[in-house]
Amino acid sequence: MTHPALLRTPDERFADLPGFPFEPHYVELDDPDFGPLRMHYVDEGPREAPVALMLHGEPTWSYLYRKMIPPVVAAGYRAVVPDMIGFGRSDKFTSRTPYSYHRFVAWLLAFVRQLELTQITLVGQDWGGPIGLRVLSEMPERFAAVLAANTLLPTCEEPPNGVAPWPGEQIAAWVEYCRISTDLPVPEIIAGVCCERPAPEILAAYDAPFPDVSYKAATLAITGLVPVSVDRPGIAENLRAWEVLAHFHKPFLTAFSDSDPSTKPWEEVFRRRVPGAASEPLIEIAHAGHFLQEEKGEELAAALVGLMERTYRS
């Protein structure tokens, strides 16, 4: 196999980002197809403490969780926030070809194993849910709880197991836009799904990993990996993940925002299908769009800390 080119965003792009004082950490993943890949993560709090594993989606990176890391650490827990391969400070392929749903899951599985993470509370938003829940289904013994926020796990099933219409107008349009695009205006995409436009310096920080379009192959590729029809890769694996979730009696909290119609219908699916959701409160984050960590990070952090307190200290 011919190895596609890899890029590594220069460190100076990440200097003095507002509200992001965290030291970088790196782990080297031994990919069976492409060799060693460097994956970045934030790691704050006591190493022996229960872990909040916070997973970003498209087109964000660990910067998305900057408001949530300090409250988790202040409560005595460990916050681990990786950048998916292709995002943030992690290595990036210059081609879309290496990126697949399967590989994103495999990279995160390798990450969890290498860091020997246990007692995990999974926090998944956007693609953090479909990737993180697949990892949970492969190693459920490592996970103690889940916080699902503006996310999904599609299988193209009809209600009550899925949502209708699927994929729906918004998701279908987003998949097609990314398919035909040769570049993505990352700051404008993030601003466009917020209730209030973030400050220019915040939007610039989200753009920091991408000096030019050659660094954006993952942002262009990942949306096209959403299983929007039964013949797409990931459907069978997602069905198996749901079989695990159907027997997941550990705490499963949903905290969706009130202004993200593309994912809001999945809140009911998770609450209906996952037994662990029955004992958890229904939390709605008001006045927030898709990236609720950005607009209401402190509120979402309070929900997360509450979940971890109930899980580990009750």
Describe the structure.
The chain is of the alpha/beta class and 314 residues long. It has a single domain, classed as Rossmann fold (3-Layer(aba) Sandwich), CATH 3.40.50. 34% of the residues lie in helices and 18% in strands. It contains 10 helices and 10 strands. It has helices spanning 69-74, 101-114, 128-138, 168-180, 186-192, 200-207, 217-221, 235-245, 264-273, 292-313, and strands at residues 6-7, 25-31, 35-44, 51-55, 78-82, 92-93, 120-126, 143-151, 252-257, 282-285. The strands form 2 sheets. An 8-stranded mixed sheet has the order 2-3-5-4-7-8-9-10, sandwiched between helices. It has a two-stranded antiparallel sheet with strand order 1-6. Strand 4, helix 1 (69-74) and strand 5 form a beta-alpha-beta unit. Helix 2 packs across helix 3 and helix 5 packs across helix 6 (200-207). The longest helix has 22 residues, at 292-313. The chain is globular and about 45 Å long. The protein starts with 5 loop residues before the first strand and ends with a helix.
Using the 3D structure, state the CATH architecture: 3-Layer(aba) Sandwich
And the CATH topology? Rossmann fold
Biggest sheet record: 8 strands, mixed
Strand content: 15-25%
Label the overall shape. globular
Helix content: 25-40%
Tell me the CATH superfamily. Alpha/Beta hydrolase fold, catalytic domain
- The number of distinct helices, counting runs of at least 4 residues, comes to 10
Spans of at least 5 consecutive residues whose pLDDT stays below 50 are none
Number of domains: 1
Distance between the termini: 52 Å
Q: What structural class do helix, strand and pairing data support?
A: alpha/beta
